[in-house]
C-alpha cells in the first residue's frame, strides 16, 4: 500500500459519498468537513516509509506510487502542505452551509483538493501544471452550478489556467533541454517572461485575478474563497519548487525585479480596488490579493526567512478570508448581497458576526494581534534592510486597508430600526473559534512555525 | 500521397478549422472545425508518435467530439449569438480577426518561437495556428461551449508541438484526460446555458 494511492481512494470515497448526499446541505457540509479534516490529519500523522502497527497488524505505507512511468510521492516535505490544504478546505466547506451552496461545491471541492494534492506530489513536478488544469476543469462545476446566473468566471479561470499550463510546461522543457544559461540572455528573458505569466495566473495576480469578482457574483463567496485558497497554496508551492530546482533562475536578475514589481503592482492596485468596492466580499477578496502581493515581496528577499514568511502568510489569509465570509454572510442572513445598503446597521443587530467580519478584514491587512500581523511585520522588517521603499509600500497598503475596514465598520454600526438577529449555535461556534484563532496566532505565531519549517525543508536549495 | 503532400493537406485543414472556429457562432460549424483540426493534428502526429498511441488518441478525441455533439443537440441552442459577447463581434470583424490569427500563427512558426528543433515546416505552422486561433476564440466567446472548443484547439496545437520532445505514456495519458475534461466542461456549460434560458423564461 502506498500513501498517494490511499489518498486517492479516500478522496474518491468522500466525493462519491458527497454526490450521494446531494440535496442535503447540512449533512453534506458536515460530511465534507469531517472527511476533509480526517484526511488532513491522517496525512499529517501517518508515518510514510516506516513500519506502523494498527490493531496488531504490521503495516507499511510507502511514499511513492509509480504510474505509467511517472510517480506520485507523498514525501515528508509535501505532507504538511497537503494536510494544511485539506484542513483549510474543511474550514471553508464547513462554513458554506450558512449560505445556499451550489450543487457541486462539496463533492467538487473535495475532488479539487485531491487534484491539488496530486499537483504537489507529482514527479517530475512540471506535470503539476496538468493537475492544476484538471482542478480548474472541476472548478467549472463549483463556479457554475445549475441555476447560477453566469459562467464567465469559470470560463476565465479555465482559460487562464490553460495558459499557465502551457507556459510552465514550455519553460520546464526549455530549462531542461534547450540549455538556458547566463551565456544566452535572450533565452533567459524568454523563460522569465513565460514563467512570469504562468505564475501570475497561479498566484492570482492582476490582471489574472479577473475571474474572482465574477466568481463572487456568480457562485458566491465560499466557492471563491475556497478556490483562491487552493490556487494560492498550490501556486506558491509550485513557484518555490521551481526556484529550488533551477539555480539558473535564482541567479537571474530579472527574477528579483519580476518578484518586486509583481508584488508592488499587486499590492497597490488591489488595495485601491478594495477602497472602491460597494460589496463587502469583493472588498475582502481584493485585500486578500494584496496580501498575496506581500507574499511575493517576501519571496523577493531570496532568503530562507523570506520563503518561510510567504508560506506563513497562506495560513493567516485562509483564516482572514474564512472569518470575513462567515461573518459577512451571517450579517445578511446567508442569502442577501452584503453591500452598502444591506449592511447598514447590521452590526448593531448581530454583534458577533460584525466582530468576525472585522477580525477577518483586520487579519487580511495584517494589523497587530491578528494572525496576519507576524507575516506582514516580518516581511516589512526583512525588506527594510535592503529595500526600505518596499516596506513603505506594504505599510501604505495596510493604511489603505485600515481605511477600507473603518469605512465598513462605520456602515455596520450605523443606526438601524430592525431588531437583533440571533446566530445559530454552529454559526456562533464557528465565528467565535475563528476570532480566537486569529488572536491566538497573532500573539503566538510560533504555533505555526514547526509546520512552516517542515514545508520549507522540502526546498533544500532555498532553505539550507 | 507523399509525406509532404499529407503535411500540406493537414496545414490547409487546420487553417480552415481555425478560420471557421473564429468566424462561426453556430455550434455545429464549430464542432466540424474541431473535428477537422483533430484530423489535421492526427495526420501530422502520425509521423512522430507510435500507431498504438495515435489510435488511443483518436479514440479519446472521438469521444470528446461525440460528447460535445450530444450536449449541443440536447441543449437545442445552436447559435451562441453575438449578444453573448461584450466585444464588437460583427461578421467582418471576425473575418479580419481570423485572417490576423492565421497570419500571426504562420509568422510565429516562421520565427521559430517554440524553440523545438524538430518542429519545423507545416507541423510548426499548424501548432502555432491552433494555439493562436484557439485563444482568439476563447477571447471572442464569453460562453463556455465556444471557449471550450477554442481551448481544445489550443491544447491540440500545444500537444502537437510538445509531442516532438515529450513522448512518455504518462504525459500522453494526462493530456488525453485534459481533452476529455475540457470536452465534459464545455458540454456541461452548453447545457448550463440552456438551463439559464429556461429559468429566465419561466420566471418572466
Short description:
Chain A is mainly α and 464 residues long.
Topology:
The complex is a heterodimer of chains A (464) and B (204).
Chain A: H1 3-20, H2 25-45, E1 51-54, E2 57-60, E3 64-67, E4 70-73, H3 79-95, H4 105-121, E5 122-123, H5 128-143, H6 152-178, H7 185-202, H8 211-218, H9 221-245, H10 247-250, H11 253-275, H12 280-300, H13 304-331, H14 346-349, H15 351-365, H16 372-386, H17 388-412, H18 425-443, H19 449-456
Antiparallel strand pairs in A: 1-2, 3-4, 4-5
Helix pairs in contact in A: 1-2, 1-4, 2-3, 3-4, 3-9, 3-13, 4-5, 4-9, 5-6, 5-9, 6-7, 6-8, 7-11, 8-9, 9-13, 11-12, 11-17, 12-13, 12-15, 12-16, 12-17, 13-15, 13-16, 13-18, 13-19, 15-17, 15-18, 16-17
Chain B: H1 3-23, H2 27-45, H3 51-75, H4 91-111, H5 121-140, H6 144-162, H7 169-203
Q: Categorize the overall geometry of chain B.
A: globular
Distance, first to last CA of chain B = 59 Å
Order of helices and strands of chain A: HHEEEEHHEHHHHHHHHHHHHHHH
Overall geometry of chain A: globular
What does this structure look like?
The complex is a heterodimer of chains A (464) and B (204). Chain A is 71% helix and 4% strand. In chain A, the strands form two sheets. Chain A has a three-stranded antiparallel sheet with strand order 3-4-5. In chain A, strands 1-2 form a two-stranded antiparallel sheet. Chain A has helices at 3-20, 25-45, 79-95, 105-121, 128-143, 152-178, 185-202, 211-218, 221-245, 247-250, 253-275, 280-300, 304-331, 346-349, 351-365, 372-386, 388-412, 425-443, 449-456, and strands at residues 51-54, 57-60, 64-67, 70-73, 122-123. With 464 residues, chain A is mainly α. The longest helix of chain A is centred in the C-terminal third of the chain and has 28 residues, at 304-331. In chain A, a hairpin with a 2-residue loop joins strand 1 (51-54) and strand 2 (57-60). Chain A is globular and about 70 Å long. In chain A, helix 8 (211-218) runs antiparallel to helix 9 (221-245) and helix 12 (280-300) crosses helix 16 (372-386). Chain A is built from 19 helices and five strands. Chain B is mainly α. Helix content of chain B is 78%, strand content 0%. Chain B contains seven helices and no strands. The N and C termini of chain B lie far apart (59 Å). The relative contact order of chain B is 0.16. The model of chain B has no long low-confidence stretch (mean pLDDT 82). The A-B interface holds A 67-70, 127, 130, 133-134, 137-138, 140-141, 144, 146-152, 154-155, 158-159, 162-163, 166, 169-170, 173-174, 177-178, 187, 190 and B 114-115, 131, 135, 138, 142-144, 147-148, 151, 154-155, 158, 162, 165-166, 168-171, 173-175, 177-178, 181-182, 184-185, 188-189, 192-193, 195-196, 199.
